[in-house]
Write a structure and sequence with these properties.
Elements (H helix, E strand, L loop, with lengths): L1 H28 L19 E4 L14 H11 L5 E3 L3 E5 L2 E10 L2 E9 L5 E6 L4
Antiparallel strand pairs: 1-3, 2-4, 3-4, 4-5, 5-6
């Protein structure tokens, strides 16, 4: 009888622990009913961006580096084994010309690196492989 009640107490204790962890997670992360949905990042252009075709012969006064140079710069920042820089696209974002260079693994785009088309500076990006 003592063994059976010990098992029941252990089971009740585990259930209470799980319940406490779930309650804590709800408090920390909030409930989806009370919070608005997170912003969804779209791969489509929005009103403040314009996309132009990328070629190695750039004749835009606002661009000092070529798409090939932007791709080489982006390659330097890719640390994931097997990932490569894809074909850059020239966009105007907040008044600045920026090359959006996709990060590709096995033919799938997993992120992007933004390269300033005037300075060649890495301006950040999005996505990537989670560790």
């Amino acid at each position: 009888m003592i063994k059976k009640s010990t098992r029941i107490l252990a089971l009740v204790g585990m259930m209470l622990t799980v319940l406490a962890v779930v309650a804590l997670a709800l408090v920390v992360f909030g409930s989806s009913e009370n919070n608005p949905p997170e912003e969804i990042i779209s791969t489509e252009n929005t009103n403040n961006t314009t996309t132009t075709n990328s070629t190695d012969n750039v004749n835009d006064d606002n661009v000092k580096i070529t798409p090939a140079e932007a791709q080489q710069i982006a390659e330097k920042y890719i640390k994931e084994v097997g990932a490569t820089a894809g074909t850059p696209k020239l966009d105007e974002i907040d008044g600045e010309m920026v090359y959006i260079v996709p990060v590709v693994i096995n033919g799938t785009t997993v992120g992007e690196i933004d390269i300033n088309a005037m300075t060649g500076e890495n301006m950040g990006g999005a996505g990537g492989v989670s560790v």
